[in-house]
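Hey team,

Sharing the HTH tetR-type domain-containing protein run so nobody has to redo it. Sequence (141 residues) first:
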Amino acid sequence: MVKLNLTKPLKLDHRSIQSQAKLYKALCEAFHSDLPFSRLTVKQLCQAASVSRATFYRHHQDITDIIIVQLLRVIGKFEASVDQLSHIDYQSGSRLVVDAIWHNRLLVQLIGWSQCEPQCAQIISGAVLNILLVRQLIPDV
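Structure output:
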């Protein structure tokens, strides 16, 4: 699993971003081909993405890490959209959440397909708490 520090934004260099994009695209294609996640191998995924297995293992421990990294990128974009609001209330906050889910519904499907909901739920819960606390939208817990 990806090592996480939720107090710092996820930073990837240009090559890592390209590799992540290729791997994520190949993962989406595997999902759309109706291949069971349990049958997908790192070798198959790397071949489809034109990424070496060495590159894969430099950044990931397993295939679900690709989904988790993508989730962290989405969370980073969501945080940036929250920060762009001059005032946040229930309506504007709800709109941001709905938009984020809508624009990333394939990611939500991949989370279910890969059965990594528990890890993703922890990440999302931590990110939500961090967003609210850092922006002083809820009192300190």
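The chain has seven helices and no strands.

Ping me if you want the raw files.
A.
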